[in-house]
Amino acid sequence: MRDQVRGVVICPVCSHIQPPGEECQFCGAHLHPRKPGGIGKSFSYSLGAFAFLIPANLLPMMEVIKLGKVYGNTIIGGVLAFFEHRDYFIGIVIFVASILIPFLKLGILWFLLAIAHFKALRRCRLLGIRLYQFISFIGKYSMLDVFVVVLMVSFIQFGEFVSIKAGPAVVPFSLSVIFTILATEAFDSKLLWDRS
Amino acid sequence: MRGRKERRGINWVNWLIPLIALGISIGMVLKYYQKEGLWVEVSFRDVRGITPLQTPVKYKGVEVGKVEEVEIDKSDLNRFILKLLIYPQYEYLIKKGTLFWKATLEISPDKIANLDTILKGSYIAVLPPTTNRQELEKLPTELYFIGLEHPPGEKGYHFVLISGSGDLGKDAPIVYKGVQVGKLYSKKLGKDGKLRYQGLIFEKYQYLLFKNLKFYRIDPIKFKASLDSIQFRVPSLRLLLTGGVGIYIGDGDGVPKEEYILYSDLEDIQYAPEVIKLVTTSKLPLSKVVYNNIVAGKVVSSEYDLKRDLKILRIKFKKEFFHLLKKSPYFYIQYPSLSLQNLNLRKLLSGAYIQMGLKGVEAPIQKSYRLMEIPPERRGYDFQLKLVGEPKVSAGEGIYYRGIKVGEIGKVELEGTGLKVIGKIYNRYRYLINDSTLFYPISAVELEATLSKISLQVPPMVQLIKGGITFITPANRDLKSRKFPLFSSLSQLKEWLKLHRDGAVIQLTAPSPAGVGKGTPIYFRGFKAGEVLGVKWNPELGRVVIESFIGKKFLSYLNSSTLFYRQQRIRAYFSLSGVKVALPPAEGLLKGAIEMEGNSSRFSPLNSYPLLSWEEYQSRNYFNIYIVAPKSYGVK
C-alpha cells in the first residue's frame, strides 16, 4: 500500500512514517511527500547535462605536449587512438566510462521520466525501478574519466619532454556529470508508482 | 496533488536551467573552434616541421598565434600557404612590413641557433617592422605575406622592389659604390605580372634611404665584370650567378618608401630621354659614345637603310652630358689600338667606339648628326694600296716615316678574291709622298738599324711591336696618284726597283751611321736623286753599310767618279714643279742629307761608295763647291 493511499508521509531523512505536516516529528527535517520539483526539475537538469555533453565531446579532454607539440584528444578521439594502438582494454574502459555511461544515464533517466509522465508506459515501471537502482549505483563512476585526466595531469609533468594539460572538455564534462547527478537526485522514484 | 502544483509553479525555472546550460555549452564550443583572431596567410617554400592546429606563431618567444592550416599553393606548387590565426590581442603586430619565418634548428658552419626548437618544436616567428607601437598602429594591416625561408639575419629597413623584367636570384646583394649595403631575400610574382622582391637595407646604411635614391638591376654578367671593385660582406660564388641590385643616388633628398621600382639598367636612370640619331656608312658594330675618355652615351638601337646604304644609330646620352650637344658636337669612329702607353685592356676588348668632340660653337641640338669614320684632325690624303705579294696589313695600322706616325691604314676589306687596302697620309705630312712613293712593312730588323736616328715620341719597344708600314719616295714627282704599291718586304721592294729600272740600289759605307738613316734624302745638285733605304752594320767590313736608292734620272752619274758626302744644313731645293722652300713642319725629318756628285757617264756603279764627311769631301778639292748658307737659296 502506498503512502499516499494511506495518507501518510515518509520523512525523507529519517524515514519515519507520520501524518503529513511541515516538519518531521522525529528529526525535524522538512517534510514533503515527494521530492520537490518532480519531473520538471529532473528533466531540466537532464537537459542541462545533455547540453554540456556537447562540448565535452567536441572539445579536447586532455592535451599532451610532447617536445613542444600539442596533441589534443577528444574523448572519442582518445578511444579511437587507443584502439589504433591496440590498447583495446583501456579503450573500452574509457569508452564505457566516458561515453557509454553518461549517455546511458541520461537515456535511462529520460526513460524513467517518461514512465512517470505517460500512463502508457506504466507497465515498465518495474524495469524502470531496476534501472533507477542501476544508475544510482554507477553515478559516482561517471567521474572516472575526469579523475584519469586529473591524475595524468598531476603525474606527467616532465617539463619540455612531455607534459599533460587538462583540456577544455574537462569542465563541461564535469558539469555534465554534476547535472546528471542532480537530475538523478531530483527524480523521486516514488513517482513511478504515482497516478495510479 | 501537491507535487503537480509545485511542478507548475516553478516551471519557468525548469526551462531556464537547460537553456543556460545549452547556451554555455554552445558558447564554449564556438569559442573554442572559432576563436577570434586575425587570419593571416603566409607563403613558404619549406614547411617541414609545421603542424596544423599545433605549431605556434611566436614573437620573441611569446605565443601570439597558431598555425591552423597548411595548404599547397595552387598557383605555385612549390610553395605552401600557411593559414595563421593571430590572437586578437596581438593583431596589431601584423602590418605591412611584418616578417614571418620558420624557426627551426639551425646548425651550420656559420652558426648554431634556435636550440630551443629541439625541445619546443618548430614555430613560425613573426617580427613586426618596428617596435614602436605608435608607428606600428599607423601602418596598414596586411594579410598576405611571403615568408622568409631563413630568419632575417640583420636588422634594417625592409622594402619591396617591383621589377617589370629580368630575374635576379634570391639573396642578391644590394650594392652602393662597391659596398654591399643590403640584400634581397625573397621573390614573389605579383598578381599584376611583376616581380616583387623583398629587400633589406642593413641598419647602418639606412641613412641612404633619405636620399633621392633609385634601384637598378645589375645583370649577372655585368656584375661579374665589376667584381674586382666590389667588396662583399660575405663573399659567395653564388653572387656571381645571381646578379645584384645597384643604388643610384641623385640630387636632393628622399624619403624611405615601402616600394621602389627596380630599373632594368643603371643607364635607364642616368640617361636623358631624348634620342639623337647618328648616320654613318660604317658597318662596324658600335655601342657607345665616348667624350674625354668617359662614356657619355650609348647606342640604344640601330637600323640599316638599304636604299641609301646607311646605318642609323639611335643614341641616348647621359643626363650630365646632354647639354654638351649644344656646343656643335662632331662624332667619329675611334678604333682601339694596342699601344703600350695606354694599355687598357678594357678598351681593347670593347672594340671600336664613337668618339665625340666639341667645336665649341653654341648651336641648337640637332636631331641627327653624321658619324664620320675618321677624326677631322686626322683628315688626309686618301689612297689605295696595291698589294705586291702578300704583305700583312691590318686596319688601323699606322704608316710611319722615321718613327713618326704620318698616316694610317683605314680599311682592309675583301674585294673579290683580293684585299682592298685604304690608307691615308695626314695632311700635314702630305709632302712626304708623291707618285713615286713605294710602301713596305716595317720589320723589326729594319727598325733596329735606324734607331739611332729616329726621334721617337714613344719608347722604341713600341715601334718594334707595332710594326706598321713605311715608305720611300725615291723621286721628285707630283702627287696625283691615288694608288700606291705595298710590298711584302723591303727586299722585295728592292728587287722590284731593280727590275723596273726606276733606279738602282747602291751601297755606301761609312764608319758610323751618324746623321744618316732610313729616309735620308740623297741630293744631286739640288735635286732629290734618291733616298737611303736602310742602314746596317757589317761586321766583316767593320763599317756601316748604307743601302741607298738612286733614281733613274741620276743613274748616269753613278760611276767611278761619283762621290757621296754628308750634308748637314737645310737648303732650298729645286723640284720639277717649282722651287720648294723646304722648311717642312717637322724639321727633324730632313735633318741631314747626303749629297751626290759626279760626272755624267755610263751607268757603271761601283760595288760600294764611301760616304764622306763634309770635311773629307772638301779636302778632295773637286769643282763645284757648294756654299751653304742659312738663308735658303742654292745655285747650281
Strand content of chain B: 35-45%
Q: Biggest sheet of chain A: strands, sense, closure? A: 4 strands, antiparallel
CA radius of gyration of chain A is: 21 Å
The overall pLDDT of chain B, averaged over residues, is 74
> Roughly what percent helix of chain B?
10-25%
Using DSSP, what is the number of strands of chain A?
A: 6
DSSP helical segment count of chain B: 13
- Which sequence of strands runs across the widest sheet of chain B? 5-8-2-3-4-1-9
Number of helices of chain A: 7
What structural category characterises the helix and strand content of chain A?
A: alpha+beta
Oligomer classification: heterodimer
**Terminal CA distance of chain B:** 173 Å
Q: End-to-end span of chain A in angstroms?
A: 12 Å
Overall shape of chain B: it is: rod-shaped
Rg of chain B, Å, rounded: 43 Å
**Share of residues in helices of chain A:** 55-70%
Task: Pick out the low-confidence regions of chain A.
Answer: none
Strand order of the largest sheet of chain A: 4-3-6-5
Stretches with pLDDT under 50, minimum 5 residues of chain B: 1-9, 231-236, 339-345, 445-464, 570-590, 622-636
